[in-house]
Design a protein that fits this description.
The complex is a heterotrimer of chains A (232), B (289) and C (225).
Chain A: E1 7-18, E2 21-32, E3 36-41, H1 47-55, E4 62-67, E5 79-82, H2 94-104, H3 115-124, H4 140-152, E6 158-162, H5 170-185, E7 189-193, E8 206-211, E9 214-219
Parallel strand pairs in A: 3-7, 3-8, 5-6, 6-7
Antiparallel strand pairs in A: 1-2, 1-4, 8-9
Chain B: H1 4-26, H2 40-66, H3 70-93, H4 102-122, H5 126-158, H6 167-188, H7 194-222, H8 236-284
Helix pairs in contact in B: 1-8, 2-4, 2-5, 2-7, 2-8, 3-4, 5-6, 5-8, 6-7
Chain C: H1 2-22, H2 24-43, H3 48-71, H4 76-79, H5 83-89, H6 94-124, H7 135-157, H8 163-191, H9 197-222
Helix pairs in contact in C: 1-6, 2-3, 2-6, 3-6, 3-7, 3-8, 6-7, 6-9, 7-8, 7-9, 8-9
Classes of the chains: A alpha/beta (232), B mainly alpha (289), C mainly alpha (225).
Chain lengths: 232, 289, 225
């Protein structure tokens, strides 16, 4: 096994129980570094739970998850997480939000404290750093972009994005996909949970289908809409 | 194991009956209080039983939290031993408030490492949490008995239902409040890690109790208050009956705890089985959702 | 240690800035405190002699209720948009968040107390017969006692149903020794009948014990999803 084959994320027999309901029912998988994974499936299939488990926000009831060889919480510097809620303070402007989160990650910038990195990231998602409007007044597309900016602020090796394109206009969504493709090309590992699989056609390296808390198939392209169980 | 339960039930019933007989018939009448004092044979053993159960709950909670990581698990063992030894020494060296004997404190503190290792051996992992729930619930029941029998005893003898400055009764009330809030937390919690939240609360409660004791103790030295239950020594015959009563209560408490423990264990097994069923059931049949 | 304090201060500064901007919570809390004092003054209308004996208890009960209303708001902003997840996912130490929130609550509740105290003095014609300066350590230590546990239990209540009622439900029993010390201490200073020395020491002990407990267990609570 060469160095490059070291997995980004290894999931071993993970079961996640919420009382009587098992959201994840014995997931086993290995994900490689530098690939773009699209995670698809019906509502309630366990996609969000899986992503939260990767991020260290949900503790598996059984089984283990290894991120670059470590516990999710130990590997937190290498993980960038974006969810459907914006994870931003509505009452602060975009830059104020980022400057605060930069403090949490201990990011320093030249000149103004962490100003440079924050500005750079905001520009890279296509927003204006000068914008003083509080995030609560952003449009959905702008909010998703700012949320993405927060997720990539500390330049993580692994990105976990939960429904980043929901309620976003086609143009913004397309730009985000381009941005993500660029990040994958520069070596990051990306996981996107989405209902809009078509957006990632030709961009994602692998499509991972989940159903009833398990991964039922992994395909390299988006040929079928509903792969039947066992079509691996 | 299963046959032991009915046998133990019979033994307990006999013991309780015997204790009742001793308390009401055999024990001598009190010179000052008359026959009313006989409630002491239910009031005091209930208190001791409740304290014992809450003590077990505290040790189980600390151990449960410590077992989360291997480093804290080791550290906690050493701390338990250190606390036991140091506490026993301190009890004899440091001057204590009047009415508290060094041997009482020393015994309690030495019990900490003893219980710690005992529980760790026989109740590993999640079993600690089941034990915590059990002892909390049964403890609250006994504590309720204390709080009900206390005023019933106080009224005819001392003329008042309650004295806010009475250390024992008020400390018991606070303990009751803490553990009722513990049970409510367990019921209202949405978290998948309720056990940890509850264990943390139990630790807070345990830290609180000595502080309650001291705060009331000082308050009453400034403001003389009636002492419900009286101080001083006891007629050896009465002490004898008290011990019989306590033994009966301990058997009873053990029986109830055992039942509750089994019930909780079964409940968790059922929950696991239901979740597991969906792992093998729905998953295998693919689209059948 | 360095990053713990720098993140604590950054978080505290952010909270103060946000609180100042939206002044809604601040204004309504101030008005609520005023209302509490007025209601109490109608409920208990004693002569100057008696008032000294019960004022200690009344004041602290009023502070307690105002504190609970303030404490229930502790995590409100972090729960909207699930910002708490962003904090949990970051490498920032959990205790920095706890200290920032506790300090923020301390400042906020102290402001409320500073407003309510003169009103109490006015409505009850209060005058301390004992050493009045001792009221300051009692106020500081007592407020911290309520706030440190309150912030901790507020975080616990996040994971429960009936969040607003869980906080006082968990807080009140644990706070009893502190409340006894605060009330008895304040009363002893107002009446001048005894020294508040022991109560101050008790409050200090309480604060040390529970601040340590909170710092030791907060991370567990924060990550208990």
């Amino acid at each position: 096994m060469t160095e490059a084959a070291k997995p980004a994320i290894t999931v071993t027999n993970v079961i996640k129980q919420f009382g009587r309901f098992a959201a994840l029912r014995g997931v086993n998988a290995e994900f490689e570094i530098g690939k773009f994974y699209a995670i698809l499936g019906d509502n309630g299939a366990g996609k969000t739970t899986l992503l939260r488990a990767f991020a260290g926000l949900a503790h598996p009831t059984q089984g283990t998850i290894s991120i670059l060889g470590q516990d999710p919480q130990a590997a937190c510097r290498e993980i960038g997480y974006m969810a459907h809620p914006s994870l931003l303070y509505d009452e602060m402007s975009g830059m104020e939000n980022l400057r605060y989160f930069a403090r949490l990650y201990g990011i320093a910038g030249t000149g103004q404290p962490n100003g440079d990195r924050c500005e750079q990231v905001v520009r890279s998602v296509g927003l204006d750093p000068e914008l003083a409007r509080p995030v609560g007044q952003y449009s959905q597309g702008m909010r998703q972009r700012m949320s993405l900016a927060r997720a990539i602020l500390h330049d993580p090796k692994i990105l976990l994005l939960d429904e980043p394109f929901s309620n976003v206009d086609v143009h913004s969504a397309g730009e985000m996909v381009g941005l993500l493709r660029g990040m994958r090309d520069s070596g990051k590992t990306i996981f996107v949970v989405t209902h809009q699989a078509a957006l990632l056609r030709g961009v994602a390296d692998e499509f991972v289908w989940m159903q009833a808390g398990q991964i039922i198939s992994r395909t390299a392209d988006l040929s079928a809409d509903f792969p039947s169980a066992g079509a691996r | 194991m299963k046959r032991l339960f009915p046998i133990l039930s019979v033994v307990t019933a006999l013991l309780l009956g015997y204790a009742l007989y001793q308390a009401l018939v055999v024990a001598p009448t009190d010179a000052q209080q008359g026959d009313v004092y006989r409630i002491i044979y239910y009031h005091v053993p209930s208190a001791w039983t409740a304290f014992l159960l809450f003590f077990i709950n505290f040790i189980a909670s600390v151990q449960y939290l410590a077992e989360a990581r291997p480093s804290s698990k080791q550290a906690a063992k050493w701390i338990a031993v250190a606390v036991g030894i140091m506490g026993a020494v301190v009890a004899y060296v440091v001057p204590l408030p009047a009415g508290i004997r060094p041997s009482a404190i020393a015994t309690t503190v030495l019990a900490i490492p003893v219980f710690y290792f005992f529980l760790g051996k026989y109740f590993p992992g999640e079993k600690l949490d089941v034990l915590a729930v059990t002892t909390a619930e049964v403890g609250v029941v006994f504590c309720t008995i204390v709080l009900i029998t206390g005023p019933i005893w106080a009224r005819p003898v001392w003329g008042i239902w309650w004295a806010p400055g009475d250390i024992r009764l008020t400390s018991t009330l606070v303990l009751w409040l803490i553990y009722v809030s513990y049970l409510i937390l367990r019921r209202f919690s949405d978290s998948t890690q309720t056990q940890k939240l509850a264990a943390a609360l139990a630790v807070f409660g345990a830290l609180d109790v000595p502080l309650v004791y001291f705060s009331i103790w000082f308050f009453r030295t400034q403001h003389p208050q009636p002492v419900i239950g009286g101080g001083g020594s006891m007629d050896p015959r009465m002490l004898h009956v008290l011990m019989i009563s306590w033994t009966a209560f301990l058997f009873f408490a053990f029986l109830v705890c055992w039942s509750r423990y089994r019930l909780e264990t079964l409940r968790r097994e059922v929950e696991q089985a239901q979740a597991h069923e969906s792992v093998t059931g729905a998953g295998a049949s693919g689209g059948a959702r | 240690m360095n990053s713990l304090w720098s993140i604590t201060l950054a978080t505290l500064a952010k909270d103060i800035r946000l609180e100042w901007r939206s002044k809604d919570a601040l204004n309504s809390m101030l008005f609520f405190s005023l209302l509490v004092v007025v209601i109490f003054s109608f409920s208990f209308d004693p002569l100057a002699e008696e008032s000294r004996h019960i004022a200690g208890g009344l004041i602290w009960v009023a502070f307690l209720f105002a504190a609970v209303v303030a404490l229930n708001q502790t995590w409100a902003r972090e729960l909207r948009n699930q910002v708490l997840d962003a904090y949990r996912v970051s490498p920032a130490p959990a205790n920095a968040l706890f200290l920032a929130k506790a300090l923020g609550n301390f400042i906020f509740v102290s402001v409320l107390e500073a407003l309510m105290t003169p009103l109490f003095i006015v409505f009850y014609n209060l005058r301390a017969l004992g050493p009045a300066w001792q009221l300051i350590p009692i106020a500081i230590l007592g407020t911290w006692a309520l706030v440190v546990n309150g912030t901790f239990f507020a975080a616990m209540s996040i994971r429960t149903r009936s969040r607003e009622i869980m906080l006082p439900l968990l807080l009140f029993p644990i706070s009893i020794p502190a409340v006894i010390a605060m009330v008895a201490g304040t009363t002893s200073i107002l009446t001048g009948e005894e020294s508040a020395h022991f109560y101050i020491v008790l409050l200090l002990t309480y604060d040390v014990v529970f601040t340590t407990a909170c710092l030791a267990l907060f991370e567990t609570i924060l990550h208990a999803e």
